Amino acid sequence: MAQEFKLRLITQRASGGDPIVRERHVAEPQATIGRAPDNDVVLADLSIDPHHARMRFAGPGRVAIESLEGQTFEVGGRRVSRAEVDLASAPVAIFGTYALALEADEDGDAVVTVTQDDHERHLTPSEFSLKAKMFGRRTMAWTFGLTILVLCLLVPLVGAEIFAHMRIHPDQQWSAGPLSKAHGFLETDCKACHTNAFVSVRDAACKACHQASPDAALVARAQDNSRRRGSPFQPVLVVDHGRPDLLLQGTPSPPDLGGRIALGFAKAFNHPTGRCASCHIEHAPPHGSGPAADKPLRVAAQTCQGCHTGLKDRLDHAGHQIDFGDAPSWAKHPAFRVQLVEETAPGRFTAIRTAFRPTLREVSGLNFSHQQHLDPLGGVTRQALGLARYRKPLDCQACHQPVAGGGYRPVDMPKDCGDCHSLAYARVGGEVKVLPHGSESLALAAFERLSGGGGGNAVWGGSDRQRPGTIAPTAGSAPSASAMAAYRAAISRGGVCFGCHELGVPATGQPDVHRVKLNNSYMPKGDFNHAIPAHNEFNAQHAPAAKCEDCHAAKTSTQASDVLMPAKATCEKCHAAQPQVAKELAGGTTCETCHSFHAPGRASRSPLMERPLEALRWSEAAGKPAV
Amino acid sequence: MTQVGGHTERVRQRTHEGFLRYKGFRWAQFATALCVLAIGAYFVTATRLGRPPSGNSWLGYTLGTVSAGLIVWLACLGVRKRWITDHHYSLKAWVSAHVYLGLSLVVLATLHTGFQFGWNIHTLAYVLMMLVIASGAVGIWAYATLPSQLSHNRGETTRKQMLESLEKLDQQIHDVAQPLDRHGAAIARLSIELTEIGGGFWTRLTNRHGDCANRRALEQLRALPSSASARQAEALTKIEELMQQKAEVLALARRQMQITAMLEAWLFVHIPATFALLAALTAHIISVFAYW
Fold first, then answer.
1. What DSSP string runs through chain B?
2. What is the count of residue pairs from A and B with beta carbons less than 8 Å apart?
3. Within a domain: residue A125?
């Protein structure tokens, strides 16, 4: 029996359901496959040649498939142009989208089942939507979000220590702005100031380097701190304006709504006002694109008048009994108070502040008449005219010598008075012996040497000067009778000391030059700059300038106990309380002209604060602060 | 507008009219009032601060808190729009507020900066926010102008019809190409199998399909030497006609895709930049409070 091909063509319905099956017999031992309609197996696929291949029996149960025009087909997963298959193994030949499954039937014929793998994709209107293969919205969103979270949050949070050596410090991106040059060395040392996370910068961080103190050890520690952190500059050392509790309780509530809201915010965010950082702002933007400022930006969190209006009431209310007056304006500035030295008990001197009035007296232990020394027709003037040092009547500067910074050095008796008031008390071998001034014990020692008594180590004609701090050779032993007699003579009427020193000469026991206690500062809570030309007739290059006598009534003072200080009205002659006059006469005068914030007793010309940054650079010689 | 394909288009058209004008510009008025209030407060308080204005003042904190809250709320639109609610217009109100309050951030956040900018995380957050707002503004422009272009472009044809006619034309080419020899069939296959309607992101946006397979097939077809067989010649003529028709439908569909792409492209900036902004905002807030 001739072998033949039985064809089963299976077509899937487009609407689904049972496929259409058509069967046909090819009454020949071979069958052609191709796209052309004259083939036995017509495969309507454009990838198939019109006459693609031929099947023929190649033996019992075997079929050979051969390409007719060189186009390949697929059998057993391989592209071939000729294949011989065993029907028993149910081979499948693939032509384009068609699969020809071959099998033998019981008659030995080949049954060829033709099916089409219809995987045609139908487009849907969603095809019109924009999609990106690589950069989908969701992918990009998560990528960018997580990248920023890692680089800008996690790395600075946990990696600050690890990456600290890197050129770009991971924390740097968190900085709101550059630090001033003075603090530039802390640019990568955020924790120097921001000591605790989520806590605003506290004063302790600032004071670690900037706390002024009378204690040299504390000052040295502050400076060491600054150096250790790498500061190229010596820190400006300052003290607080006042006790922290007083500052806190004395600061008024803001008068305006904005201020109250600000205060509410400050409290809510644990961001106290009145900190160093409230006035000294870091990370402030430089002007334009200019370089960073030299020092932190200084702003006024409060005005002087703002706090010093009703301040006494507030502090009284808070339970602080402090003796001071409010100063809501210059017009209402309290009367000047002077600080006088009083001997409250024998040998005990106390400084007492009291309102100034012309009748005030201060017992200094000296006899001195300014009037006598300044009288143009007096004997002092006549004597001065004859002295090579003066050749003119005495003026204030003859005794009160100015020093740099606007002050005066204390009067030095031997130097300033010695031309007229000799301290010579003996002539030994043609040499005039001069009594040491300022120390009773030194004077006694000098008399001891003169009389040849004492501990025996005194040398005639030797130096009567002692090293500071050492006591006369007779220390520890009572002065000899002859030395005491000489001393008594010196302090008695006609003696060398008499005249200037008020004497208390007891009938018995050790005589006593009345203790002298001179006042160094009559107005320690405010400052007056004697150096500026308008304040000083000696400095004035151009008129007008205040004369000494405008403020100090020395020309009419006949007693050393006169307090030659001016009242507030004296200042008001120029610094009038009326604003417009004040502006004309003394423009720019503010509270700080006399009272520096950080040192209320000093004017704001505080040299260290105002020194340019470069002047603060450490040098080998600048081991100590110039406070 | 046809009944079948026009439904979604029509709803969108109505929505885009609606969200800008919602309730007589209620949210536009609210946002404007917010901006005027912020500007007023800024100029009144900035002069009294005694220091350069910054986010570090009480007004800075207020503006910063409001801005950060707004940003988070605005970002929630992505969540809100996925909820199906009974209130048909609530999403429209939401979108309206999203648009106007989002625009008001330009004022609020700029005032919050106190005009201090630098190379830091804070300015990065600001720049990202401005990028989000700018891309959103492009989105508003797109929604206001492009739907009418879409409608105008497709005329009476729906998208579905465009795709169906392309498939139909492919089927016809396939059928007509059956008598062709291998070379002719390959040309037909080129058009049927390799023609991409849309293409990638930029191809869609620019609508430049220089290597369109259908066009290449048409060129190759025209370059074929005249066929000996009359049947083949007839088939080729028919195929050329069909490919020509296909090119026209393609042009229409591709222009439709381009407009759709322009309508949607801004979201490819808006959404990723929003996520980046939320991350930068988190870093900004944490860093400010950690080191303050």
1. --TTTHHHHHHHHHHHHHHHHHHHHHHHHHHHHHHHHHHHHHHHHHTTSSS---TTSHHHHHHHHHHHHHHHHHHTHHHHTTS--S-TTHHHHHHHHHHHHHHHHHHHHHHHHTT---SSHHHHHHHHHHHHHHHHHHHHHHHHHHHHHHHHHHTT--HHHHHHHHHHHHHHHHHHTTTS-HHHHHHHHHHHHH--SS-SHHHHHHT--TT-HHHHHHHHHHHSPPPSSHHHHHHHHHHHHHHHHHHHHHHHHHHHHHHHHHHHHTHHHHHHHHHHHHHHHHHHHHHHHHT-
2. 180
3. no
pLDDT tens digits, A36-74? 989 999 998 999 999 999 999 888 888 999 999 888 999
Mean pLDDT, chain A, rounded, equals 80
Final residue belonging to a domain, choices A513, A533, A557: A513
B52 vs A284: CB contact, 8 Å cut-off? Answer: yes
Q: What is the pLDDT of residues A166-211, one digit of tens each?
A: 666 777 788 888 889 899 898 888 888 988 888 889 999 999 999 8
- Can you give the residue range of the structural domain that contains A491? 415-513
Query: What is the chain B residue with the closest CA to A142?
Result: B275
> Of A328, A345, A363, which residue sits at a domain end?
A328
Nearest CA-CA partner of B95 in B139, B135, B127: B139
Q: φ, ψ for residue A468 (rounded to 5)?
A: -55, 140
Q: How far is CA B78 from each of CA A138, A148, A454, A530, B271, rounded to the nearest angstrom? A: 12, 20, 105, 73, 9
CATH number, domain with residue A82? 2.60.200.20
pLDDT, one tens digit per residue, over A98-132 is 999 998 888 878 888 888 876 666 777 788 887 76
A473 falls within a domain: yes
pLDDT of residue B1: 37
Listed as ranges, residues in chain B with pLDDT below 70 are 1-18, 50, 85-89
Interface pTM (ipTM) of the complex?
0.81
Cα separation of A364 and A353, whole Å? 16
Rounded average pLDDT over A572-598: 68
B residues 8-27 closer than 8 Å to A (CB): none
Site of tokens 């390409």: A67
Are A213 and A312 found together in one domain? yes
Of A125, A173, A265, the CB nearest to B160: A125
Q: Are residues A529 and A393 in the same domain?
A: yes
Whether residue A500 is found in the same domain as residue A537:
no
In a domain, A430, yes or no: yes
Residue pair A42/A65 in contact (Cβ under 8 Å)? The answer is no
Q: Note whether A189 and A319 are same-domain residues.
A: yes
| Helix/strand/coil for A496 | coil
Tell me: do A43 and A103 sit in the same domain.
yes
H or E segment to which residue A208 belongs = helix A203-210
Q: Do A174 and B200 touch (CB under 8 A)?
A: no
Q: Could you tell me if residue A405 is inside a domain?
A: yes
Using the Cβ of B196 and the Cβ atoms of chain A, whether some distance falls under 8 Å is answered with no
The answer to whether the CB atoms of B50 and A301 lie below 8 A apart is yes
Q: Find chain B residues with C-beta within 8 A of A285's C-beta.
A: 52, 54, 116, 118
Q: What is the pLDDT of residues B95-134, one digit of tens each?
A: 888 999 999 999 999 999 988 888 889 999 999 999 999 9
Both A286 and A183 in one domain: the answer is: yes
Q: Are residues A173 and A318 in the same domain?
A: yes
**Alpha carbon distances (Å) from A522 to A351, A447, A538, A567:** 10, 36, 22, 12
The C-alpha angle with vertex A412 and arms to A567 and A434, in degrees rounded to 5, equals: 150
What is the number of domains present in chain A?
A: 4
Say if residue A93 is in the same domain as residue A218.
no
**Full 3-state SS string of A582-595:** HHHHHCCCCHHHHC
Q: Which residue of A has its CA nearest to B49?
A: A301
Residue A352: helix, strand or coil by DSSP? strand
